[in-house]
Design a protein that fits this description.
There is one protein chain. This protein has 317 residues and is α/β, with parallel strands linked by helices. The strands form two sheets. Strands 5-4-1-8-9-10-11-12-13 form a nine-stranded mixed β-sheet, sandwiched between helices. Strands 3-2-6-7 form a four-stranded mixed β-sheet. α4 links the parallel β8 and β9.
């Protein structure tokens, strides 16, 4: 197989979602009224987001040798993601997230990494086989940090763009990681964790971006939710307002944004146009419930942009 345009190195989880009128207090047993199993994990979500935009996508990760693992692989494949280098780990179960959601949409989440927590040098070796000729490597922080750093270093060594979504939020990323990052895409909360001060508008985002660039990041993209997106490149800074939609569920909106951004860059669009694509993909994701089930296909995103007179950002082919 030829080298992919986009490689995703990260987590693959099964979300176990229970809905109940209220969240239990310690020692309390409640009756819920629905239960669903939903393929998730930030890595897998981003891979599906890219693949649905018709960009060749390879997933590097781990699942367990269990029924969840088979279901997770099937979900990725049905979206068009290449999974030949997702390892079925016979010593660990598939990663799971146990989620309870009440009628006020409050929730608690327990993540058990399982096979995701064992990712390391062997997985980076599998990744390295795909890097020559690739457009970008997408990374997140739901797998061990040493594996993230090693993957970024491998991509950096061969000139492949590294796009890091620093989620779940962490305050103390290794200093040497920043210089390996081509594009970092925190939301406001994650940006604040990274820089140590509140980030809530374009002005504070600009301050955060300056600090992250001083640490070595090339381009900083800060997602400000319903407000919009601030971007600082080595050449310019700009703000792109958010698309207005009726949000139903924002659970995978950040992953959708990264998928749209990476797919557009792979097609040769500018960073400004790619952010518009990311914003549109994220906005559309928020209009549907679920994680991977909410991620839009290419025709839907193109139609959305055309309706809003942003057809200039449609892919070239």
């Amino acid at each position: 197989m030829n080298s992919p345009s986009i490689i995703v190195f990260g987590s693959i989880n099964m979300d176990l979602v229970a809905r109940t009128p209220s969240l239990p207090v310690p020692g309390e047993t409640l009756l819920g009224y629905s239960f669903t199993t939903v393929p998730g994990g930030k890595g897998a979500n981003q891979a599906v987001a890219v693949a649905r935009l018709n960009v060749l996508t390879v997933m590097i990760g781990r699942v367990g040798s269990d029924s969840f693992g088979q279901e997770l692989l099937s979900s990725l494949r049905s979206a068009g993601v290449h999974t030949e280098d997702v390892l079925a780990d016979e010593s660990h179960h598939s990663g799971v997230a146990i989620i309870a959601v009440d009628d006020r949409s409050e929730n608690y989440i327990i993540v058990i990494p399982g096979a995701n927590g064992t990712m390391g040098a062997v997985d980076v070796d599998r990744l390295s086989q795909h890097l020559p000729g690739a457009t970008a490597l997408l990374l997140q922080l739901e797998i061990p940090l040493p594996a993230v750093v090693a993957a970024a270093q491998a991509a950096h060594n061969v000139g492949v763009k590294v796009i890091l979504d620093p989620a779940p939020a962490q305050a103390d990323l290794p200093t040497d990681l920043y210089a390996l990052i081509s594009i970092i895409t925190p939301n406001a909360i994650e940006a604040a964790q990274l820089v140590g001060f509140p980030v809530h508008d374009a002005d504070t985002a600009a301050q955060a971006a300056t600090l992250l660039q001083q640490r070595g990041v090339e381009t900083v993209v800060i997602k400000l939710g319903a407000t919009g997106v601030f971007c600082a490149t080595p050449e310019e800074s700009f703000f792109i307002p958010a698309f207005k939609v009726e949000a139903v569920d924002t659970v995978a909106a950040g992953d959708a944004f990264n998928g749209g951004l990476a797919a557009a860059l792979a097609e040769g669009l500018s960073i400004r146009e790619a952010i518009v694509w990311g914003a549109a993909t994220g906005a559309l994701s928020a209009t549907k419930a679920g994680a991977q089930s909410s991620l839009p296909d290419r025709a839907t995103v193109e139609a959305f942009l055309k309706e809003r007179d942003r057809s200039v950002s449609v892919f070239s082919h």
